[in-house]
Design goal:
Blueprint lengths: L1 E2 L2 E4 L5 H10 L4 E5 L5 H6 L1 H18 L16 H24 L4 E5 L3 E4 L2 E4 L2 E4 L2 E4 L3 E3 L27 E5 L3 H13 L2 E5 L11 H13 L3 E3 L5 E6 L2 E6 L5 E4 L1 E4 L3 E3 L6 H4 L22 E3 L10 H16 L12 E4 L5 E5 L2 H6 L4 E7 L4 H6 L5 E7 L5 E7 L3 H14 L3 H4 L13 H6 L2 E2 L1
Parallel strand pairs: 1-7, 2-3, 2-8, 3-4, 8-18, 10-11, 10-16, 11-12
Antiparallel strand pairs: 5-6, 6-7, 9-17, 13-14, 14-15, 19-20, 20-23, 21-22, 21-24, 22-23
Helix pairs in contact: 1-8, 3-4, 3-5
Bound molecules: flavin-adenine dinucleotide (FAD) and nicotinamide-adenine-dinucleotide.
Organism: Rhizobium sullae
EC number: 1.16.1.1
Cofactor: FAD
């Protein structure tokens, strides 16, 4: 049995940073990873996908060159081998950076293998047992593959395998119209494929307000992407070298060459031996944690996607910050004080902070709302990209900003003005007095705040 001060299972966007902090204090730590350091974000998530999105945008801008007076003679060709290589380079640089970083830590052992609990404080890996008074779980999640009729008879892609595709599909059918599905759908359309999105629900990006979902659909349709919502009988059948995708009784059948399944993710908690440790999960398999990220077992913590309190790299990293503050720095940080924020990386992107309009209306608070189309934002006009709109929701009584959405060029960056104000507790009348830089998208935030109306 090998003794450590702390064991980390899974090298996602949380555990490795806490392990490094502890190793920096001379504590003996083991970081167990069954595949690659960096987990999903580095190897199969944010980093490769945003690299691919950048290639897709380059193709899109090149095709629109003439709108700006830039003439490209000849067609626009996308070399999928180079596209894939860029993503692989970004992955390998980040992964190797982490490997090099940990190599330099004297009291940190990296163990490659599948970890499983054998007791509350004992973990087995590669036939060896490790023990520590503290265990941190950062095991992440993996794609959900629904039991669609005919799916097992076809080759299908997931968000992980599609990163390694180096040929252009003739027709990509994307099943699931949320973050993963929408980012890949637009990207592959821009690479030159025909693309159809098939979504079970009535709207794309259904967590958002309907006006946002509708604007997203408009953006995608304008690029020639077909969208089928309310698809309630999805089934697959092989046909020649392609796949027939049924979207329900009496509804269209799509003749696809490739199928991407993007119907959500599930936590990697089913093969972790949680029962042996007595660690509780909810009915979807997410590990139950308290406000300081400890499970029901003293000394065992769950960080990142596997605790169901966030599903993003920044929420996982913030879990590290909370654990480090509480366990190493004498702080008292809690997950419940985190203000939700994220972006959807279609182009133009959607930047989001706080709650949606529908959540605000449901809360029973007296609210104020203001919207502005991007066509009335100078910077968007100058850049020739006027799709989308901005929306801000505030509490009419406390004057706090409750939420915001910026669907438009640079929306993922401009939203940070709102995120920062919300985190600092700045009221909207105070934020109205900021003097933003001209010409930017952000400069319209005080104007939108000035137009807030009680609803
Ligand atoms: C296609 C895609 C795009 C995304 N884009 C974004 C984005 O733009 N922005 C954003 O914020 N988020 C994005 N995400 C989500 C983001 O990747 C995750 O939220 C983030 O990686 C946090 O994950 P994590 O820290 O919980 O664990 P992960 O990064 O998932 O890492 C978990 C690690 O644990 C390992 N592991 C699991 N079980 C065991 C075991 N029993 N023993 C040993 N090791 C184990 C796994 O191999 C994995 O390496 C995206 C996700 C996907 C799939
Ligand atoms: N930009 C980002 O930050 C980003 C990008 C990609 C992924 N992610 C993370 O990855 C997670 C997973 O993303 P996702 O898009 O796969 O999942 P999701 O849970 O957001 O959406 C899944 C979609 O598939 C649909 N769906 C589910 N079952 C279906 C079925 N049987 N048939 C048809 N449609 C079905 C749902 O209605 C939903 O629209 C997200 O929670 C997100 O946190 C983040």
């Amino acid at each position: 049995m090998k003794n450590y001060d702390a064991i980390f299972i899974g090298a996602g966007q949380s555990g490795p940073f806490l392990a490094a902090r502890m190793a920096g204090k001379g504590m003996k730590v083991a970081l167990i990873e069954r595949k690659y350091l960096g987990g999903t974000c580095v190897n199969a998530g944010c980093m490769p996908t945003k690299t691919l999105v950048a290639s897709a945008r380059a193709a899109h801008v090149a095709r629109r060159g003439a709108d700006y007076g830039v003439k490209i003679t000849g067609g626009i060709d996308v070399d999928m081998k180079i596209v894939r290589k860029r993503a692989e380079t970004v992955i390998m640089d980040a992964r190797n950076g982490l490997i090099g970083w940990f190599d330099g830590m004297e009291t940190a052992d990296i163990v490659y293998g599948q970890a499983q609990f054998t007791g509350p404080k004992t973990v087995s890996v590669n036939g060896e047992t490790l023990t520590a008074p503290q265990v941190f779980l950062n095991v992440g999640a993996r794609p959900v593959i629904p039991d669609f009729p005919g799916l097992k008879d076809i080759d299908y892609l997931t968000s992980t395998s599609i990163i390694y595709l180096d040929t252009l599909p003739r027709h990509l059918a994307v099943i699931g119209g949320s973050y993963i599905g929408l980012e890949f759908a637009q990207m592959y359309r821009r690479f030159g494929a025909k693309v159809t999105i098939v979504e079970r629900g009535p709207k794309l990006a259904s967590r958002e307000d309907e006006d946002i979902s509708d604007a997203i659909e408009d953006i995608l349709r304008a690029e020639g992407i077909a969208v089928h919502t309310n698809a309630d009988g999805i089934a697959f059948a092989k046909r020649g070298d392609g796949v027939d995708v049924s979207t329900g009784a009496g509804r269209p059948v799509i003749g696809a060459s490739h199928v991407l399944i993007a119907t959500g993710r599930r936590p990697n908690t089913d093969d972790l031996g949680l029962d042996a440790a007595g660690v509780a999960t909810d009915k979807r398999g997410y590990i139950t944690v308290d406000d300081r990220l400890m499970t029901n077992v003293e000394g065992i913590f769950a960080l990142g996607d596997c605790n169901g309190r966030g599903a993003f790299t920044h929420t996982s990293y913030n879990d590290f910050e909370i654990a480090a503050a509480n366990l190493l720095d004498g702080g008292d940080r809690r997950v419940s004080s985190r203000i939700p924020a994220y972006a959807l990386y279609i182009d133009p992107p959607l930047g989001r902070a706080g709650i949606t309009e529908k959540e605000a209306r449901f809360s029973g608070k007296k609210i104020m709302i203001s919207t502005r189309p991007m066509s009335r934002v100078g910077r968007a006009n100058e850049r020739g990209e006027t799709q989308g709109f901005m929306k801000i929701i505030a509490d009419a009584e406390t004057k706090q900003i409750l939420g915001a959405a910026i669907l438009g060029i640079e929306g993922d960056e401009a939203i940070h003005g709102i995120i920062d104000a919300m985190n600092a507790g700045t009221t909207y009348p105070a934020l109205q007095w900021s003097v933003p830089i001209h010409p930017t998208i952000s400069e319209l935030i005080p104007t939108v705040l000035g137009d807030l109306k009680t609803v």
